[in-house]
Model the fold of this input.
Amino acid sequence: MAVIALKCPHIRVTVVDVNQQRIADWNDENTDNLPVYEPGLAEVVKEARSRNLFFSTDVNEAIRTSELIFISVNTPTKTYGVGKGMAADLKYIELCARQIADVADNNKIVVEKSTLPVRTAQSIQTILSNNAKGLSFQVLSNPEFLAEGTAVADLFEPDRVLIGGDQSPEGLEAIEALTSVYANWVPRERILQTNVWSSELSKLTANAFLAQRISSINSISALCEKTGANVDEIARAIGSDSRIGPKFLKASVGFGGSCFQKDIMNLVYLCRHFGLPEVANYWQEVIHINDYQKHRFAKQIIDSLFNTVSGKKISFLGWAFKKDTNDTRESAAIYVAWELLQDQAEIHVFDPRVDKEQILRDLDYLAEQNIEFSKIKDKLIANIRVYDNPYEAMDDAHAIALLTEWDEFKEYDWTRIYKGVKKPAFVFDGRNLLNKEALETIGFEVKGIGR
Ligand code: UDX
Done:
């Protein structure tokens, strides 16, 4: 919304949220305090806020005065009842639709921005149509393809913008209204118009395909470790085939983030629901390989440290699910930590953007999902320490595990680090980020993913 406001100075954009603190933070004069860290975002918010971007808790007023309403609430995986652990929880979407129906006093275009299962637009349409005021609502699907860490750049120059809507004259008119917003900075040929179901399903499919590429290369990384092949060399070799392409072939400790796992589970659930078990099982395997990869990484650490990490200090470089973000949702680090903690390790974490409170919240979240963890959570959490200084986090460590590919890790004084750690000095590079040969010359024993 901040980018829309920046690129369309003639459009008034109001972002509303029921969370007062969050809105206060978005309005904070000091843009260091914005709730989301994203390169370039503070500048965009600052400029747009001085003109046509507003943050407010007055949801009803914003509904009444807007022509286009984007629903951007979260759609987490259901943690209860039917579809538990698989289906998307649509309660927040439903609440938004009901509030719009209650409050609106003229016709609106309602845009699904949240990632949603196919046919959700139908549910929103049903709720909106059942208003007693005779108003007419058009529901559009406009999924977001930005990636975290590069969100602003992705929004400035998207590969495509997707807008799905009803193919009736009123629906096409609504599609055109939203197209004309993006056309202020996105070339028209990059704005794809589809029916609403294609648009909804495209988002799930795009994320499933991206995640599938990572699981594919990660599965090969396991074979590389057995055979002496190098997974980065393989990625380069296959990525040079223009039909395959070089992107999203970086082997890693496993993908994280708020989208991939959730969207694939959602896709799997939909396939089962529509009686397509073979299709469901196919996509389920992408998640299975991802879990296997995280487990394999933790096991490699334990095996290398003479089959136990009990009482040993393992330093984590990175906790975020990827570099340049403070987002930790579904980060591989959380699951690797959990496995090592079960083996009674002490985990010493440094991440340039993630603080201790967030790490503790992540472990609380894990305890909610995992009954085994919840039983011994307090005891395990006592074995986690979080640092502001990376050198202190690594001092006297039995092993260093690199979980996030922050650029600064490459710049550290590794000779100094080597002097401070226990010998043999192990580095487990879950991102193949560091220069293996250089570290080995210093004296480290370096284990990476698939090499
Ligand atoms: C993803 C999609 O890319 C984006 O289009 C969609 O809108 C939201 O979900 P995001 O989750 O922000 O974006 O990050 P992304 O860059 O896709 O990375 C996801 C995870 O995959 C990260 O943990 C990342 O480290 C990992 N990854 C990515 C790899 O392990 N290897 C790769 O080659 C690429």
User: Anything to note?
Assistant: The chain has 18 helices and 13 strands.
